[in-house]
Specification:
alpha/beta, 2 domains, 5-stranded mixed beta sheet, 5 strands, 59% helix
């Protein structure tokens, strides 16, 4: 691999990297990682909100799944990472030389969040380009103060809130920056207010959905935060900060092994002082605000909340490298990043293929998903002449089956019936349903009990035995099933 920053081999190397991270997990894994089938079943219903999160991430995930098939979620995840690198580069070019911007963007691959967790497309991964895009457009808006940038900022801010509500932390950070700098004069003009109006209009359908559904995602987030706070209390903030530092360890090791010296002086030789302050504020303030809130109020902070907050880390680090040092070390830095990318790719492939045997137990990516879905489809077709419309039971098993079933059934989540507003008693009576759970579980499913007394539904039950693909010596998975079949469909 040539190490000149704009050699044609570097883009080809990056393309190969993203192809490997798309294809290898798909080929080597036995099932989707944890959040992927959940996002697929949400997106399939095209709601304006779901009981955990706003909708946009799930809509996009389901669209990729629908267009590209079962490999779609892996394509989307790596496209998200690639888009993040591209946005970091575009923004970096506004602040420093193209070569520094390129290295700073590439450094993102040396932050752990941008590698291993990208196997699993979820709302945190989806936020990564959103945060970088918002920072870039906000920079253009306040610097050039043009209508098109403010309009775009409002649109992105609203869309960002439809991805995950923690985007509000970044928006608050931007408002504070504008109020604490000479840019506060912009609030005396119409442009930022129009941007706010656009953001609110984009976000309004989800707010309406929240009002109609008792603010379910906020209740869910509050419960998760309280659960974490009960374990560590105010000290959870220190654990959160420690995890964010650890996730930068590969980048720090690259700097160490290449003997790249950093200077903590303001890098005025490569950018304006105000740009440096902007970069530092946007790169460090969101996590600092979150950690301070956790420390003061005892909030439970989840480590993964920090995933989208470090898109500027590479630019900050590269800006701290003195000019002469950067000129001498650029080849070494690119080599170091490439070596880390190779190492983490090998580790990923080894873990996905052999992890279950090494640990002697399956991870979420080691479940026999294809066998489960095939057995469910076959069982339903043996009993019913109608399409499998919906499923319920143990959430993980049901989600695995639903995301690989040829019937693409809707999913009813166990627990509160409000979690699945697309379902109704009438729909179940008309189409029936299939319930699944491991033999050692019995989930609380509010929909099933009334079905047993419906005269137009016939209930059948049984048990499957499914072998573990990755653990042939492990005791097979036993799955209990109950099928509720409309009389008109009964074979």
């Amino acid at each position: 691999m040539s190490c000149r920053p704009f050699s044609v081999r570097l883009p080809l190397w990056l393309i190969l990297y993203f192809i490997l991270w798309t294809v290898l997990p798909f080929v080597l894994s036995a099932s989707y990682p944890l959040d992927v089938p959940e996002g697929i079943y949400w997106g399939r219903e095209w709601q304006w909100g779901y009981y955990k999160h706003p909708p946009l991430s799930s809509w996009i995930l389901y669209s990729f799944y629908h267009i590209f098939g079962h490999i779609g979620p892996y394509i989307l995840s790596q496209c998200t990472i690639a888009l993040s690198l591209w946005l970091a580069y575009l923004f970096g070019r506004r602040l420093m030389s193209p070569s520094r911007a390129f290295v700073g963007a590439l450094f993102l691959l040396a932050i752990f969040y941008y590698t291993w967790p990208s196997l699993e497309f979820n709302h945190n991964i989806a936020q990564m380009p959103v945060w970088l895009g918002l920072v870039y457009v906000f920079y253009l808006a306040i610097r050039e103060n043009r209508w098109r940038y403010w309009l775009l900022f409002g649109l992105l801010a609203g869309a960002g809130m439809l991805v995950k509500y923690t985007v509000a932390v970044l928006i608050i950070t931007m408002v504070l920056y504008s109020l604490c700098t000479p840019y506060r004069r912009l609030w005396l003009t119409a442009k930022p207010w129009l941007a706010i109006l656009i953001a609110l209009l984009v976000f309004a359908p989800n707010v309406y959905w929240l009002m109609q559904h008792n603010w379910l995602p906020l209740t869910y987030a509050s419960a998760r935060s309280a659960e974490d706070a009960s374990r560590n209390g105010h000290l959870a903030a220190f654990g959160y900060l420690g995890t964010q530092i650890i996730n930068h360890l590969p980048l720090l090791l690259i700097l160490l092994f290449t003997r790249t010296r950093l200077s903590l002086r303001t890098p005025v030789q490569i950018m304006y002082r105000s740009d440096w302050h902007f970069l530092l504020w946007m790169g460090l303030a969101p996590t600092s605000i979150l950690a301070c809130a956790g420390l003061i109020f005892g909030l439970g902070l989840r480590d993964m909340w920090g995933m989208p907050m470090w898109g500027l880390s590479g630019l900050i680090i590269v800006a701290l490298i003195p000019e002469q040092v950067f000129t001498n070390k650029i080849d070494s830095l690119l080599k170091g990043t490439g070596i880390w990318a190779l190492i983490v790719t090998i580790l990923m492939a080894t873990y996905v293929e052999f992890g279950a045997r090494i640990r002697h137990k399956p991870s979420r990516m080691d479940w026999p998903q294809v066998a489960l879905a095939t057995q469910a489809d076959k069982q339903w077709q043996m009993l019913s002449s109608c399409k499998l419309d919906s499923m319920t039971g143990s959430d993980w098993v049901v989600l695995l089956v639903a995301s690989y079933s040829k019937f693409a059934p809707s999913v009813m989540v166990s627990g509160d019936a409000a979690y699945s507003p697309w379902m109704s008693d009438n729909r179940l009576q008309q189409h029936g349903t299939l319930a699944l759970w491991p033999a050692n579980e019995r989930p609380q499913v509010p929909w099933l009990q009334p079905l047993a007394h419906q005269p137009d539904l016939i209930m059948k039950r049984g048990e499957w035995t499914i072998a573990w693909n990755k653990l042939p010596d492990r005791e097979p998975l036993k799955v209990v099933w109950q099928a509720y079949i409309p009389k008109k469909c009964l074979k």
